[in-house]
Amino acid sequence: MAIVRIxxxxxxxxxxxIHNQYVSPQTVGxxxxxxxxxxxxxxxxxxxxARLGAxxxxxxxxxxxxxxxxxxxxxxxxxxxxxxxxxxxxxxDIDIEVDKTYLVFLRRDISKDGKIAEYVMxxxxxGMREVKDSQARELKAGTKISSNIExxxxxxxxxxxISTAVEIK
Length: 169
Fold this sequence. Notes:
five-stranded mixed beta barrel, two-stranded antiparallel sheet
């Protein structure tokens, strides 16, 4: 678990190079660790992330489907070729945004040969909550968690003290 700033969104994928297999669509990019809370991430470390949900070209999306799923889509579309993009998003999930700061649940994922590593954001809308300082101070690497830090409740749209989700020591 950490407070992170999203530095970039590199796009979407449904093929995971770490496990060398097709997966549910994911958004990938880079983030900076502002405040580690639990785990092995370091202050100021910039790391790769993956998060469920993405916008993909239809051709890429179709490659990740089984033959039966492709046939069903073809039938539903009356044989017309699909084109454009598909947005895969779980109900009630929030969109990730560049330059925003979030409290996230992270799981490190690394390839068997150790050459590829990234952090997977777990828990969809419950595992990613926007963070702000109630006194409008910028959150930088090493920012201590204090009572001024608030997190957005993704269901109600209201800001809550971070202590509702994280123990402040």
